[in-house]
Design goal:
single chain; about 575 residues; alpha/beta; Copper Amine Oxidase, Chain A, domain 1; SH3 type barrels; eight-stranded mixed β-sheet; eight-stranded parallel barrel; 14 helices; 35 strands; elongated
């Protein structure tokens, strides 16, 4: 009996020992870091013709191409991330880029490109396509953009540095491992040598687990144990890229521009008669040119005598070109490189032929789809204007979200003047009666524009006209129509109907209303006081000047008001 008891005790002891050993082994195993290695080509899955893109400290969701030892980035990534001034013409397969003085063009599949008319050659194919997808050589992008990159193989990856600022770095205390996950049991991505430099990718994600997410200098992102790295320090990354400087033709003094609506060549003869009643006008903009075909040709009402007469009065001529021809599709015009070039060349040729001082672009029918092509046209035209000493001004509606594709900020960089047409607040197609240009509307136009364009390049457009509104009620619905009237004609309407207008503080205008037969007539006048209210805002904002639509519709006395602020 005693012997059996001893055997039982010994057996129990052995069993406990075995259990203890198993527990110890299990604990030791759990505390022993994994030595399993994950191959980088498995972690960064790219084939021989692809390249992984790492933007500063993050893996990009699109891959680039790797062809002929050259890295290619997709076009959308280039314009959205690095440089929006690259432009792709999918009709003629031409990549364009503009600097302040150069228009650069490259055709798909070629290592040749043109700088203005000079042929240049690269050591690589500049632009490639795979179906509808466009790829640009990273070296060509780098030539014109603020970026640096390093390329690594096995697997193919490119680390792109394109942001300046303070970034958090650390170094390795002693040799350790970079792992796939924040665990010592996770696979190893790379053995880290002592003093290896690491960029912090995320300092908060796994602090509790004792790991931090970092990136090596060769673009491998993973996790390292906190106890194996030194205290972090911020390091400033500064760019040595020198951005191109856009010069501008800036006129001395404040600009006082009037648009002169010219509908036929005979109308050119009335210029001096119209100017003699003005005061302080510095620029006249005749409506001479219009885009007349989808090929980019223009019609012209230009007159050499007109320019000579204007210059004799000390007035510059910035001829206007519009896109009002309903038979012309501006997307068709502007999306073709050859058509944009034809249009800009014809305008420059006319400017030189007639000794014009400037060109005024009045494209009001640009669609959202055509927006990027319109801006490219402005860039290209600005190069030719700049090289020929011709002022380039662009007419715009008051800034609004729906017309953001007009990109007034870019206009303010590449063009000489951005003109905001602070009128047509209520227009011929409006469903309700209202002011053409209330004081609040003008104030809003100034404030919104100055968020995008420097004040010295902003010209504010004001109206020399109003609208007489007619409201007729029919079956509970009010039908609204209107007609445009000049300043004097608007005032005469109220006089004729024995109506004394009252000042509308909110509109900053005199308002009149009367009934006739079954209709109600309403009018918000433009006259000396309403113009002065606008001029005060423009003067306080210290803008480059005003542009008035249109010459001949104004009261003569309004020039005395304008002269107080522009002289």
């Amino acid at each position: 009996m005693e012997r059996k008891t001893k055997q039982a005790i010994i057996g129990t002891a052995i069993a406990l020992l075995i259990i203890f050993i198993v527990i110890i082994a299990s604990v030791m195993k759990s505390l022993t870091p994994s030595k399993e290695v994950m191959a980088l080509d498995e972690y960064y899955k790219v084939n021989d013709k692809e390249v992984l893109i790492i933007l500063q400290d993050r893996i990009y969701d699109k891959k680039g191409l790797f062809v002929g030892n050259q890295v290619y980035l997709d076009y959308d990534t280039v314009v959205q991330t690095f440089n929006k001034r690259f432009h792709w013409d999918s009709n003629e397969n031409i990549l364009s880029y503009t600097t302040p003085t150069e228009v650069i063009k490259a055709e798909v599949g070629s290592n040749e490109y043109y700088v203005n008319k000079s042929k240049q050659q690269a050591d690589y194919t500049i632009v490639k396509t795979e179906g509808d997808q466009v790829y640009i050589s990273i070296d060509f992008v780098k030539q014109y953009s603020d970026l640096k990159y390093d390329f690594y193989k096995d697997p193919n990856r490119v680390v792109i540095e394109y942001k300046s600022g303070d970034f958090l770095y650390t170094t390795v205390k002693k040799p350790t491992q970079l792992r796939v996950e924040p665990s010592i049991k996770s696979e190893i991505l790379k053995q880290l040598e002592q003093d290896a430099k690491l960029l912090f990718v995320d300092t908060s994600e796994v602090v509790k687990k004792g790991f931090t997410k970092v990136m090596t200098e060769d673009g491998i992102i993973g996790y390292v144990r906190n106890k194996h790295i030194r205290e972090s320090e911020y390091e400033k990354i500064e760019s040595d890229y020198v951005a191109p400087e856009y010069t501008h033709i800036t006129k001395e003094g404040t600009i006082n521009l009037v648009w002169h609506q010219v509908t036929n060549k005979d109308a050119n003869g009335g210029l001096l008669g119209l100017l003699q009643d003005t005061k302080g006008v510095t620029v006249v903009s005749p409506t001479w040119f219009s885009v007349k075909s989808n090929e980019g040709t223009i019609s012209s009402l230009a007159s050499e005598t007109y320019v000579e007469r204007a210059h004799s009065q000390g007035v510059e001529v910035w001829a206007l070109v519009d896109d009002f021809n309903p038979e012309v599709n501006m997307l068709e015009v502007l999306s073709y490189t050859s058509r944009r070039e034809k249009l800009s060349n014809e305008l420059i040729a006319e400017a030189i032929k007639y000794n014009l001082d400037g060109i005024n672009i009045d494209f009001e029918r640009i669609s959202a789809e055509a927006g990027k092509h319109f801006i490219q046209f402005i860039r290209e035209l600005s190069v030719k204007c700049r090289n020929n000493g011709i002022v380039l001004s662009i007419d715009n509606y008051i800034p609004a979200e729906y017309s953001a594709y007009y990109d007034r900020e870019e206009q303010g960089i590449v063009a000489d003047y951005v003109i905001i047409m602070a009128y047509d607040e209520h227009h011929s197609n409006s469903e309700v009666s209202g002011s053409v240009s209330s004081i609040g509307f003008v104030k809003q136009a100034i404030e919104r524009t100055l968020k995008m364009v420097p004040k010295e390049r902003v010209i504010m457009g004001i109206p020399f006209y109003t609208r007489l509104w007619k409201e007729v009620e029919d079956s509970g619905t009010v039908k609204v129509t209107s007609e445009a009237l000049g300043m004097t004609a608007g005032i005469e309407v109220l006089k004729k109907n024995n109506i004394e207008p009252v000042w509308d503080e909110d509109a900053g205008q005199y308002y009149g209303e009367y009934k006739k037969e079954d209709a109600t007539y309403k009018i918000w006048l433009e006259e000396d006081e309403s113009i002065e209210a606008k001029m005060k805002l423009i003067d306080q904002a210290d803008l480059a000047g005003i542009a008035c639509w249109k010459l001949g519709l104004e009261k003569e006395s309004v020039w005395n008001v304008i002269q107080k602020y522009i002289n």
